[in-house]
Amino acid sequence: MPGKGASPRQRRQRVIRAIAFDCYGTLINVTDESFIRACERILAAHDRAHQSRELWEKWLEAARESARAAGRDPQNPVGGPEPPFAPFRERWPRYFAHAFQALGIAGDVVAAYEAFHDMLANGTAYPDAEPALRALARHYKIAVVSNADEDHLRAALARNHLPVYLVLSSESARSYKPRRPIFRKAAELLGEHVHDVLYVGDSPVTDLLGARYAGMHTAWVNRSGASLPAGVPKPDYEVRSLTELVQALLGGER
């Protein structure tokens, strides 16, 4: 890998031939608060909107329990055998069933899932996403590789007119980040060696740890200025915005 004094052009020629981006939280502005607001809408019909955060926490509890039941180790999220795959549209109604039962609500799990689905499909891109992708696409193949079902991922990208060379959802890869197969599949479809791909994301574990374990270079879009959790390898790049990432990779070249 080129030393710290290498120019952006040298780094690009020697190391990075393609860039793969996480979608939600990196390109599309979806955060935990987005899910909590969706929970408010779900609970409004039951006059329980004030319990939206509780619903979200119970939903996450169900998701974690499902992962453990499938054999995933939260202390080693990238290790062990590949867990059985199921898309969000199958998993998420089950999580809502658990959450509704915990709160004593006779909720419609399908309608609740659709509320989350629609929120993801209609997400709005960060203002820096589209110009950054256009600038980088002049020099690299650009992919979006996301834990997402195919339909809502493609809908969000199309809605925001984000230019990408390749879209790979967890549904089409039949693997979720941070597991290795989805990253390896992305490199294969890009026609590049995994070591020549830079993965850009906002999640230290799902994105940075997973991509590094698969063999990719990593860039952390740390919009909130958070600290890197223990056990996560330091990324090759850490930026506060996608505009900063373009500057780091291209310098004055656009």
Topology:
Elements: H1 8-14, E1 18-21, H2 32-44, H3 52-69, H4 88-103, H5 109-121, H6 129-137, E2 141-146, H7 150-159, E3 166-169, H8 170-173, H9 180-190, E4 197-201, H10 204-214, E5 217-221, E6 237-239, H11 242-250
Parallel strand pairs: 1-2, 1-4, 2-3, 4-5, 5-6
Give your account of this protein's structure.
- It is a single chain.
- The chain is of the alpha/beta class and 254 residues long.
- It folds into two domains: 8-29 and 126-250, HAD superfamily/HAD-like (Rossmann fold, 3-Layer(aba) Sandwich); 32-121.
- Helix content is 48%, strand content 11%.
- The chain is built from eleven helices and six strands.
- The protein has helices at residues 8-14, 32-44, 52-69, 88-103, 109-121, 129-137, 150-159, 170-173, 180-190, 204-214, 242-250; strands at 18-21, 141-146, 166-169, 197-201, 217-221, 237-239.
- The chain has a six-stranded parallel beta sheet, with helices on both faces.
- Strand 2 (141-146), helix 7 and strand 3 (166-169) form a beta-alpha-beta unit.
- Helix 9 crosses helix 10 (204-214).
- The radius of gyration is 19 Å and the shape is globular.
Strand content: 5-15%
Lateral strand order in the biggest sheet: 3-2-1-4-5-6
The gross shape turns out to be globular
Segments where pLDDT lies below 50 for 5+ residues? 1-14
Total beta strand runs? 6
- Kindly report the average pLDDT value: 93
Summed up:
This protein has eleven helices and six strands.
